[in-house]
Design brief:
- Helices cover 81% and strands 0% of the residues.
- The chain is mainly alpha-helical.
- The chain has one domain: Orthogonal Bundle (ABC transporter involved in vitamin B12 uptake, BtuC), CATH 1.10.3470.10.
- Helix 3 packs parallel to helix 5.
- The longest helix is centred in the last third of the chain and has 28 residues.
Length: 277
């Protein structure tokens, strides 16, 4: 079975299209998240969404929508806790993470335990996406990209100097809440691809790799998208060819790319710093 043979299967076609859409959204949001010092935001919202997933399964309703709602609520709570000085940012992330996970465990137990549907959200199930899922991802990613592009300068300003941006009259509070909502969208879409436990593989790792070699913010965005696409597409093909769990395969490719980038950068600096002769 070759890579070209794999493309003949409908589930592979759907997985690749869905993976490309989600990878772009995750890489874009991940770049902003890392530069704002909020690398754990994705994991916190992913765990917050777990409560929504369990709630959806309990009521026999699509878990995706409950997960999205839970992640959005979690993101808003994180911002409010930090903005009002109730706790520091890292503490707010921990509160929402543990709260969502704890609630999810209780609801999952009431719903009959950790069934296959629930486990698919924990570890991802990209090979089971439907064209309806692909359409939903396309709509969500399109909306996310329109908002990010439309508010690109504002978010760039907030990312590098939030205090000055707020002092200049920028509605930082509202923009940060919107940012939390956009991140929640990217996180919940990523859950279908890599699962709750491996969200960082798409949201953080590609962006972290890009920032090791990028010379500008735009270049960092572009490289993060490329790394996320390679991780997703490569992971899907590896999962198909070797019968690996797709979420794990995507995470392994993502981390491998990060290792290659870091080692290459270190080797380059070592060679340049070596004395001649």
């Amino acid at each position: 079975m070759t890579i070209l043979d794999a493309l003949l299967f409908g589930f592979m076609q759907r997985a690749l299209v869905a993976g490309v859409l989600v990878a772009v959204a995750a890489a874009v949001m991940g770049t902003f998240i890392i530069l704002r010092g909020m690398s754990l935001l994705g994991d916190s919202l992913a765990h917050a969404s777990f409560g929504g997933v369990a709630l959806g399964i309990f009521f026999s309703v699509s878990p995706f929508y409950f997960a999205l709602l839970s992640a959005v609520v979690g993101g808003v709570i994180i911002h409010i806790l930090e903005h009002r000085g109730i706790v520091r940012g890292d503490a707010a992330l921990g509160i929402v993470l543990s709260g969502g996970l704890g609630l999810g465990i209780i609801i999952a137990s009431a719903a009959g335990g950790f069934n296959i549907n629930l486990l698919s959200f924990l570890f991802g199930s990209i090979l089971t996406v439907t064209w309806q899922d692909v359409l939903l991802f396309a709509i969500l990613v399109a909306v996310l990209m329109v908002v990010v592009v439309g508010l690109y300068k504002e978010y760039l300003y907030l990312t590098f100097d939030e205090e000055t941006a707020e002092a200049s009259g920028l509605p930082a509070h509202g923009l940060n809440i919107l940012f939390a909502v956009l991140t929640a969208v990217a996180v919940v879409a990523s859950i279908k691809i890599v699962g709750v436990l491996l969200v960082s593989a798409l949201l953080v790792v590609p962006s972290a790799a890009s920032q090791h070699i990028a010379r500008s913010f735009r270049q960092s965005l572009g490289l993060a998208v490329v790394f996320a696409l390679v991780s997703t597409v490569g992971g899907v093909f590896l999962a198909f060819l070797f019968d690996w769990p797709p979420g794990g395969a995507i995470a392994v490719v993502s981390l491998s790319l990060f290792a290659v980038v870091v080692l290459s950068e270190r080797s380059y600096h070592w060679i340049m710093a070596a004395p001649e002769g």
